Amino acid sequence: MGKIKKVLGNINFLSAILAILTGIMVGFVIMLIVKPGSAFGGLFTILFGGFLDGREGFGDVLRYAAPIILTGLSVGFAFKTGLFNIGASGQMAAGAFFAIYVGIKWTFLGDFLWVAAVLAAIIGGFLWGIVPGILKAHFNVNEVVTTIMMNWISVFGAFIAYSSADIVGGTTQNAQKVNQAAALPNLFLDKIFDNPRLDIGILIAILAAIVIHIVLNKTTFGFELKAVGHNRDGAKYAGINSKRNIILSMGIAGALAGLAAAVLYLNVSGATYKIEQNLIGEGFDGIAVALLALSHPLGAIASGTFFAYIKAGGLELKPWGFDQNLTGIITASIVYFSALSLIFQKYAKQIIAKFKKGGDVSE
Which domain holds residue 144? Predict the structure, then answer.
């Protein structure tokens, strides 16, 4: 049995690597078609652009990675418990409102303002996430439908929420910037990476991944969540409260997305929430992160950092005559081939199982 797990683990890793290489090759072929003379230069920039500015450049990679690692955890956590959370973007919007409101209005908290704003974002995402969970648990409404609906409710509801709370920035359609005390601290990262824009967001994301990994794999609560996801009726027969766990699963996924909003909008660089009719892109980037990581919490750290690295390279493509959106095509291709790899893994597991059936399964 141990050998089977080792083989499957190797298959999972190789599938992810193959998806990445194939996606990059798709981007390279497009560059060859569009501008053959610059294709190799563009490829080099994508592969090494994150290091072109030295420590500062890689600091930006970590800054880009933090929110999408967290949205990847949000999507992956729901996957692990048998649910498809496509609503991370809406949950981020809810978390952003809570964080920004606290960051502007609760200045009496002084140096603890950023902590309160982060907690508020988590609560906002959790509350937004449990609505599809309740509908799924009690009325069996498909969570894909409800999370998509909640996404758009958050978009249009933002106009009402920010205006009613009087936190719109002047004549613009942007939220006001939070008080400086609400910004996440740099700690020592700005010195290590020589980048004043880098704060503890990446440390929060890594810590969250470790906590989720422990919860899912080392606790009774995590076992119950996964049991409900694998077989709701079987879990109910075993005495597990399936309705409660579905609601909590979606709530936790929403809380992680809310935390991603805090990392994004409480950044020391002063990111501003734009009140417009668009969904937050990092919410959907989380789907790509989760797929490439095969929903593994620790894998989300690596896949999120990789996608952020590709994004950083794309920002340097202009001198070669390519649009930075080319990295979006590469990312989409990687997601596509990651999905295909899941099919490959399914058949690989069946073949391995048949092969071992006649052997010593006690190994």
Answer: 55-320
